[in-house]
Amino acid sequence: MGRPSKYSDEFRCDAVALYRASEGRRTFAAVAKEIGVNHEILRNWVRAADAGPSSTGQALSADERAELARLRKAEREWQVEKEILRRAAAYFAREMK
């Protein structure tokens, strides 16, 4: 068995969320430097998060799968709304000039 990690699970989740929030505009190295970890550690955390709980042997219950589907749908809607607002802001910024 390996040594325990010096990073908490909450820190790892926050780091993965920070990387994902960059929506591909920032590299692993840039985000990792910002939070003070090695970029390969961050890459491993993101890959582990992408693999999901099934890779660790924990299956999702039916309620958890339903909630996950609901949350993913809500996130897609928020992304569309964000894109609409971004375009509207750009349009009105051009109009102001």
What does it look like?
With 97 residues, the chain is mostly helical. Helix content is 71%, strand content 0%. It has helices at 9-21, 28-35, 39-51, 62-96. The longest helix has 35 residues, at 62-96. The termini are far apart.
- Nearest-angstrom radius of gyration? 18 Å
**Helix-strand string:** HHHH
- Average pLDDT number: 87
Whole-Å distance between the termini? Answer: 63 Å
The DSSP helix count reads 4
CATH topology of the largest domain: Arc Repressor Mutant, subunit A
Total domain units:
2
**The top level CATH class name of the largest domain:** Mainly Alpha
> Which segments are poorly predicted (pLDDT under 50) over 5 or more consecutive residues?
none
**What's the count of strands?**
0
In short:
The chain is an all-alpha fold. The chain has helices spanning 9-21, 28-35, 39-51, 62-96. It has 2 domains: 1-59, Arc Repressor Mutant, subunit A, CATH 1.10.10; 60-97.
Brief descriptors of the model:
Homeodomain-like_sf; single chain; mainly alpha; flat; Transposase_8; 97 residues; Arc Repressor Mutant, subunit A; Transposase
SSE arrangement:
Layout: H1 9-21, H2 28-35, H3 39-51, H4 62-96
Helix pairs in contact: 1-3, 2-3
